[in-house]
Amino acid sequence: MVAPRARLRWWWYLVAVVAASCGPCGFQPEPGVKVVVPSMPATLDWSHSDPDSWANYPVMLATQRGLTQLQPDHTVGPGLAERWERVTDARGRDVYTFHLRQDVRWSNGAPLVARDFVVGWRRALQGRERGEMADIDGASEVLALQERGAPEAEVHAAMERVGVEAVDSHTLRVMLARPRSYFLARVANVYLFYPAPSADLEGKSDEEVRDYFDRPREGRPLALGPYRVDQWDRAGERVRLVYNPGSAFPPPLAPGEVPAPVITLMKSEIGPALYERGRVEFVFVDSAAALRIHRPADLRREPLLSTYFLAFNTEKAPLDRPEVRRALSRALDREALVAGLLPAARPSHVLLPPELPLAANAEEAGRLPHYAPEQARAELAGVAGLGRPLRLVYRSGDGFVPEVAIAERVAAQLARVGVKVVLEARSDFSAEISRRSAQGPRTYDLYLRRLGADYAHPNTFFTLFEREGNHQTGWETQAGGEPLARFERLLEAGDAAPDDVSARARYVEAQEVLVGEQAVIAPLYHPDRYYRAHERLRGLDVDPFNFLALRALRVTMDSPVAQEAP
Q1: pLDDT in tens, 347-373
Q2: Over 128-197, what HEC string results?
Q3: Which residues pair with 436 in a beta bridge?
């Protein structure tokens, strides 16, 4: 047996060991700004990416840049390219000539060159999300060859024909298979289109390239943005970023402000508690229910390019009739659905957020189904099939969207027009809305879902509802598929339009087919993201795509973190 005094000494020894190794626990003091994020990145290789790419964005956006970048009004402006020309060739292909900034350098001092885009985009064509590159001329051939397992030499030969060319060191020519009005918005924010440091990567084996990205060291992987990755602790779930003083994109400094020398991104189940104790400087507020109880003074809000909507199972009677779906949409009082649930809310009956470029104006939006309870009651009276309860499915769990409360209010509002709704929260939400009955149609009647933009263009909202989209509404069966085919033709015309005026007109029509004529969905509101950030920080926020934004981060000069070196 061990004596009591010896046992006590042994216990204190264990405490000391655990405390000394508790950096990953979130309690060990660390230099710089500490930020709690919902998830750690799955990769640092922005060209190869992975299906869970949303988790990678905070790091990618802080360390890299695109050819273009979004302005405060969500329009496209210069990024790595200072200017560009767009022409359509004799074969109807869009050809962009980008003129790169000559003052941009990688974090080791090497200049950015057009070859970096050629290497990066070719690598993306072989990555896990290679389908994202399909708009580039010749990409479809490369994708098809990889799909059928063609020899590597054949794939590489096709890669040489892909429409990405370094005309000279600072001129990049990009050829699209067909005109795409959303292209400039995509290259601003979708990180697969970022350049790769060709001088570092060319000539390396696949294993050496993986090691380059998987084990940050000696200033690698290189960065263009104001930060670069210094350490990636997978076991401790931390990423350490250090300031890149050579970046051509420094944060905008006001008097008394300096860049944050170190940022530590960390995952923690007790983020709010760590924030309250001053252990971290930023945390998302991921509980809408908590916001109804306590709204701290340092609470901040970012309006998202996002829409929360009610979807209808158009294959299942009586929801297989568009006039019934339109009436149900008119029965919903969007203002009342979100009233009091959040510090602020933006109720809406349109899919495209009004601040999105090319969105419908107020007059055009007014043509879509909106709250008209008496009209809804009259249209729903005596509809065959509404005698049974409608099954409404939504995601279980608490999040920044108050799903439970909205579901309950939807049920209550539909009850006022004589429609009974039963609610079902599902942890397997995606599987449930795709589940089919023995007779063929999907089993749900209604579901609630949030759609967020990947880039600032209507295309990113509409793709979900195309024939191959994951909408699970069955509207491809409506009227023999004619409405969906017409919707897709309008999208194609908008995507191929030569100017914004023509594109906007087609997108407005497409929204009227989807939300108005067919009422496949009933938009409810445009969500916001809430977070808390310490007062000594400036520019640490969330972007309109729901990603942590670190590009403009700086701290006050009297802040302790301002004095901490990497």
Answers
A1: 999 999 999 999 999 999 999 999 999
A2: CCHHHHCCECCHHHHHHHHHCCCCHHHHHHHHCCCCEEEEECCEEEEEECCCCCCHHHHHHHCHHHCCCC
A3: 442
Averaged pLDDT of the chain: 92
Is there a cis peptide before residue 318, judged by omega within 30 degrees of 0? yes
Q: Which residue has the tokens 């297989």?
A: 320
The distance from CA 148 to its chain's CA centroid, rounded to whole angstroms, is 30
Instruction: Say if strands 33-36 and 262-266 run parallel, antiparallel, or are unpaired.
Output: parallel
The DSSP element (H or E) to which 495 belongs, if any, is: helix 482-496
CA atoms within 13 A on the CB side of 459: 20
Q: What does the pLDDT read at residue 562?
A: 63
Q: What pLDDT digit, counting tens, does each position of 134-176 carry?
A: 999 999 999 999 999 999 999 999 999 999 999 999 999 999 9
Tokens in use for 512? 């009227």
pLDDT of residue 2: 41
Q: List own/partner pairs for 362-365 with CB under 8 A and 24 or more apart.
A: 364/508, 364/512
- Confidence band for 17, pLDDT divided at 50, 70 and 90: very low
Q: How far apart are CA 373 and CA 90, in angstroms?
A: 54
Cβ–Cβ under 8 Å, residues 239 and 233: yes
Would you place residue 23 in the very low, low, confident or very high pLDDT band (cuts 50, 70, 90)? very low
The pLDDT value given to residue 557: 78
Strands 554-556, 537-538: parallel, antiparallel or unpaired by DSSP?
A: antiparallel
User: What pairs with residue 35 in β-bridges?
Assistant: 265, 282
pLDDT in tens, 83-104: 999 999 999 899 999 999 999 9
Are 219 and 228 spatial neighbours (Cβ–Cβ below 8 Å)?
Answer: yes
| 3-class DSSP state of 238 | strand
Tell me, what amino acid is at 355? Answer: E
CB 98, CB 139: distance < 8 Å: no
Rounded Cα distance, 155 and 152, in Å: 5
Q: Which two tokens stand for residue 358?
A: 């090319």
As given in the structure block, the two tokens for residue 268 are 């923690």
CA distance linking residue 561 with residue 263, whole number of Å: 10
How far apart are the C-alpha atoms of 302 and 172, rounded to whole Å? 35
Question: Which of 336, 339, 308 shows the shortest CA–CA distance to 524?
Answer: 308
For residue 525, how many other CB atoms are within 10 A of its CB? 24
496 class by beta-carbon count within 10 Å (0-12 exposed, 13-18 middle, 19+ buried): middle
Peptide bond into 226 cis (omega under 30): no
Burial 262-286 (b: 16+ CB within 10 A, else e): bbbbbbbebbbebbeeebbbbbbbb
Q: Read off the tokens for 186.
A: 């995509």
